Here is the input.
Amino acid sequence: MQKPIKTILIFLFVLISTIFFGQNQTENSLLIKENLDFPFGTIVKMKVEIIDGASLNLKALQGQYLIKIKEINDKSLEKPVIMEFVDESREFPTNNFALYELLYEKEVENGLSSDKIAEMNKNYVGKIVVVLGYESGKFTGSPNKSEYVKTNVNSFQLVNQDYGFHFKNYIVIDSKL
Here is the structure.
């Protein structure tokens, strides 16, 4: 009697884990959708706050800056949206090195200390600005390997440390208002 109960419990655990923690590759790979309520490429006025990627506790965002979109076309968002951005205005650095170059008008020579980054962030992170921009996106990450590649290529060459292949949304900042 003990064995069937144990088997059922293990089955339920695996099923529940798959439902809550599994990733539906088909659904994720086919969905390309805007994060904002405007079609890709639609220029809008946005009130944004500069965010330090390190504050989000994701290793991939260390040293990066993001924006928190608070208003679009003078309408407050019910829930602000945090997104990566590309700066075409040359006024909003997207990473620590670009911020250093903007502030000091020279390239970083020997890396940046945490104290220097904290000093630079004082006048940049948390800054609220109004910009014109639009949402765009791109495919990024490592594609899934085909069966041919898996069976005919050395496994050493298959090792990579990247995100899975997916569509990544971002904001393009055109100009500051």
